Amino acid sequence: MRVTSMKSAIDAGQRAVQDFASSKEAVSDALVEGTATMKKLWKQTCDRADDLMYEASRSIKRSPMRAMAVALGAGALLGLLIAKNGRR
Fold it and tell me: pTM (2 decimals)?
């Protein structure tokens, strides 16, 4: 009886070690995959930001007066919102 319970305890310990090893491997794989995905998303975001900056630059060069009017309007609106919220 003692030998049987000792063997079953050893078997349970071995299964626990195997489960831990497979869990560790799964977490490691998920971490590597997540890192690769984040790097890909970061590159896409940087590329898109570069494209937007280029397009904004081209738009300003094509219509500088229009760009100044938009900037002035946006600044005035932002100033009004800040001033209105500051009075509370």
Answer: 0.52
In whole angstroms, give the CA distance from residue 40 to residue 33: 11
Share of the chain above pLDDT 70, in %: 94
How many Å apart are CA 50 and CA 64, to the nearest integer?
20
Q: Which amino acid is at 28?
A: S
Question: Is the separation of the CB atoms in 47 and 55 below 8 Å?
Answer: no
At residue 43's C-alpha, the angle toward residues 30 and 24, to 5°, is: 10
> Can you read off the two tokens belonging to residue 83?
């001033």
- SS3 of 22-41: the string is HHHHHHHHHHHHHHHHHHHH
Residue 6 Cα distances to 2, 14, 54, 57, 61, angstroms: 6, 12, 72, 76, 82
Alpha-carbon 9 to chain mean position? 44
